Amino acid sequence: MTSAPTPTPSAPSPTLVVLDMAGTTVADGGLVERAFSRAAEELGVEPGSAEHAAQLDHVRATMGESKISVFRALFATEEAAQRANAAFERAYADLVDTGECAPLPGAEDAIGALREQGRTVVLTTGFARTTQDAILDALGWHGIADLTLCPADAGRGRPHPDLVLTALLRTGTESVRHVAVAGDTAYDMLSGIRAGAAVVAGVTSGAHDGTRLRAAGATHVLGSVGELPALLGGL
């Protein structure tokens, strides 16, 4: 179900693939919203209130963005934003620890296929390193990719290009034109476009649909990350 124009035949086939985690390679299953609700309640936002509903709408609209940036937009002070972020990370890690975390169908095979094609694979997230590591632990994914990155590793999270560019620098990739980015949110697409990636593939397995992914700049829209090896193999 690949759509949108493909790069010209002369474009190099990407050697670096930067993959999002939640919603792209890892099933979200509403964990972000549930963890947010716990965090908001800890800061005195009553579940079911108009304030809670408005904040939850913002969380949904900004899926893919660095979580501390989301909380800075929702709370008036840096202290409150940091408290909310810490509470969110604890709540998400607790949910992961109870077994509510799974790879999306075909994700492990896709990562393996990409590496078998000779490509370098980097997993990225908008979560803090502790939460990213908790997910990797739960899935047994340490070592599944060549590198894992969170916003603290790069300086800024999505929609800034920093995670993609940090992946390029740390892996010694020659050019941004040798980079492919895949994610399930508009913020993933913006990050890839701003970094100059040759392929910016949106997947409809997560937060945003094809229309929104295309509007954010997706060069391709796929049903899942499982379609990515075939797409890149044809370039």
Automatic annotation (TrEMBL):
InterPro entries: HAD-like_hydrolase_sf, HAD-like_sf, HAD_sf, PhnX-like. It holds the Pfam family Hydrolase. GO terms for cellular component: cytosol. GO terms for molecular function: phosphoglycolate phosphatase activity. The lineage of its organism: Bacteria, Bacillati, Actinomycetota, Actinomycetes, Kitasatosporales. This is Phosphonatase-like hydrolase. It comes from the Bacteria. Keywords: Hydrolase. GO terms for biological process: DNA repair. It comes from Actinacidiphila yanglinensis. Gene3D superfamilies: HAD superfamily/HAD-like.
